[in-house]
Amino acid sequence: ELKVEQNPLFLSMQEGKNYTIYCNYSTTSDRLYWYRQDPGKSLESLFVLLSNGAVKQEGRLMASLDTKARLSTLHITAAVHDLSATYFCAVGYDDKIIFGKGTRLHILP
Amino acid sequence: NAGVTQTPKFRILKIGQSMTLQCAQDMNHNYMYWYRQDPGMGLKLIYYSVGAGITDKGEVPNGYNVSRSTTEDFPLRLELAAPSQTSVYFCASSYGQGSGNTIYFGEGSWLTVV
């Protein structure tokens, strides 16, 4: 059965700093998703990664996928307070999509 | 553009009662999903469907049932509600897995069982 592990689960960081969130998964997959969730809200799609070596960037966020290592990263560059949220990775397996536990990111001014 | 619509948004149930959470999408998506999210936790897949008439169990199906009689609708039924079913429920849809299309989520349904 597919396991999806994110780390860290909690992250408090200063504005202006860089950091990376890691997403490991246990079974071969060709679909990796990143979502953002604000408190009390639904999930907002950030990236869909479909192939080994895929890299996508939007503003201060950049996601990459290494299917051989079964690893995806979400890199935050020069963090700003508005990026405070919970970030989830999710992995496609057969017809299912399995989520990690999420990384709660708190960016201090 | 409605997207994925869930009703009700909030509901309080007594232990042992039953209810149905409604989910409808207007994007002609084949794939639909139900997830639950407990406080401070990730999303757990309850049931999913790859098309009308086809449903399958996810990670945590016990205590729930689904049906998919049309492409648009994917209701989730809770039978004999228990406090452990207190959670936020999200419905989601997409065109299909192979194309890697974005998965769209509804706004969520907050359910409390007392």
**Major beta-sheet overview of chain A:** 6 strands, mixed
Number of helices of chain A: 0
The CATH homologous superfamily of chain A is named Immunoglobulins
Taken as a percent bin, the fraction of beta residues of chain A is over 45%
Q: How many domains is the backbone of chain B divided into?
A: 1
Pair with the biggest interface: A-B, 22 and 25 residues
Low-confidence stretches of chain A: none
CATH architecture of chain A: Sandwich
Q: What's the CATH topology label of chain B?
A: Immunoglobulin-like
Domain count of chain A: the total is 1
What are the segments of chain B in which pLDDT stays under 50 over at least 5 consecutive residues? none
Q: What's the multimeric state?
A: heterodimer
Terminal residue distance of chain B? 35 Å
Number of helices of chain B: 0
Beta content of chain B comes to: over 45%
Lay out the secondary structure.
The complex is a heterodimer of chains A (109) and B (114).
Chain A: E1 4-7, E2 10-14, E3 19-25, E4 32-37, E5 43-49, E6 55-58, E7 61-66, E8 71-76, E9 85-93, E10 96-99, E11 103-108
Parallel strand pairs in A: 2-11
Antiparallel strand pairs in A: 1-3, 3-8, 4-5, 4-9, 6-7, 7-8, 9-10, 9-11
Chain B: E1 4-7, E2 10-13, E3 19-25, E4 31-37, E5 43-51, E6 54-57, E7 64-66, E8 76-78, E9 87-94, E10 104-105, E11 109-113
Parallel strand pairs in B: 2-11
Antiparallel strand pairs in B: 1-3, 3-8, 4-5, 4-9, 5-6, 7-8, 9-10, 9-11
